Amino acid sequence: MPRLTVNDRAIEIDLDPVTPLLWGLRDAANLTGTKYGCGVGDCGACMVLIDGEARRSCLVSLAECEGRAVTTIEGLSRDRSHPVQQAMVAEQAIQCGFCTPGIVIAAAGLLARNANPSDAQIKAAIPNLCRCGVYPRLLRVVQQASRAMRGNAAAGATPVTTIPSEGTPR
Question: Of the candidates 75, 103, 133, which is a domain's last residue?
Answer without folding.
Answer: 75
